[in-house]
Amino acid sequence: MDRNRPGRAPNSRLRLAAGGLGLAVSLLAFFPAPTTLLWMVAIGVTEWGYLFAPLPLFLFLPGGRASLAGRIAALLGLLTTLLLISPLLRAFPVAASLPSRLTAAFGEAAPRFVVGAAPRPAPLNPLDLFRGIASPEVREVQRSYKTVAGQTLGIDLYLPRLSQAPAPVVLIVHGGGWRSGDRSELPQLNRYLAARGYLVASIDYRLAPRAPFPAAYDDVKGAIAYLKANAGELGVDPERLVLLGRSAGGELALLVAYTAEPGMVRGVVAFYAPADLQYSYAHPGNRWVIDSRGLLEGYLGGPPVRRPTAYDAASPIRFVGPPTPPTLLIHGGRDELVSPVQSERLAARLEEVGRPALLLSLPWATHACDAHFNGPCGQISAYAIERFLAAVTK
């Protein structure tokens, strides 16, 4: 028996190191990421963690618990597994209450049904976490919708499948802090909605600091004008238009929806969007994760002390009023890049003026949680968006 001991200590120490590393990573399921890189890891932990949860249990393999280090490693493995599945466990109560909350906020509405592309029957299906959300292929067309200052802006059209024309329109505005990103981001939702009878249009827009506000705002309005001008060719109903934006794109989608002529926009969906840019500047995020003040200065041409009018003009919360269209806000409760306070304050303002709105708060989720379309954030938000679209475009 003694001859086995020389190899046992290094093996136990290796298990202990693996257990410690796994636990450290899994803590991102609850604690804010301190750097940009760890924020990206946190997306994986919170939205893909359930897939990796069984791996730490290998620290319980026979022989590994013969030493104190091995027993500690096994305990760390168990804790890691529990932390990795905790986002999913926290998602189920949100999913359970979502159907009634959507009905209370926007009224009863049956989702569009297309043969071969049925609506989601429930907000969170455990099987879909592994097999994926089934959706048939749709036709995608690339065009340009505007040329300005020598720059041609593209639009990707996801054409509805077996839709009864004219189809409702969903205009997608990408994120990226107003200075990066493009229309190709996160296409799974676009294809999902197009398969269910919506024309989905994902656009590029001019980026800061080369093209500061209101350039991007004007571009989103230009895309709406393009869709209206080509409605007959595209087979869409321009009077049933919904805007959907993520992060900086959420700010643009909200701003255009809230400043449009009454009735022009039927509804707006904003993922983790800044709604009050003065507040954003006064309460910046962790500089090691995001330079929020730098992004705002690039977008708006300087700090608020020099550009107060621009900050106010770009803040959707300042344009909430009786004509404001129905709003669906989706925000992770531990978002390191855009504080969930932004959506909470906007939701409170919408409630104050009596406008239809719902804040779908996802306690486990961080910024860009919908990057995994089959994960808890992706499934729940897809369900909410599908029902929201049905309610506001009927």
What is the gist of this entry?
This protein is an alpha/beta fold. It has helices at 5-26, 36-52, 68-106, 128-131, 188-195, 215-229, 231-234, 248-259, 277-282, 292-300, 308-313, 341-352, 376-393, and strands at residues 140-148, 151-158, 167-173, 199-203, 236-246, 267-271, 327-332, 357-362. It is 44% helix and 14% strand.
Distance between the termini: 76 Å
Secondary structural class: alpha/beta
Q: What characteristic shape results from the CA principal axes? A: globular
Helix content: 40-55%
Q: Give the rounded overall mean pLDDT.
A: 94
Instruction: Please tally the β strands and state the result.
Output: 8
Compressed to H and E, one letter per element, the order equals: HHHHEEEHEHHEHEHHHEHEH
- Largest sheet, described in full? 8 strands, mixed
Order of neighbouring strands in the sheet with most strands: 1-2-4-3-5-6-7-8
- The poorly predicted ranges are none
**What is the count of helical runs?**
13
Approximately what portion of the residues adopt beta-strand conformation?
A: 5-15%
User: How many whole angstroms does the radius of gyration measure?
Assistant: 23 Å
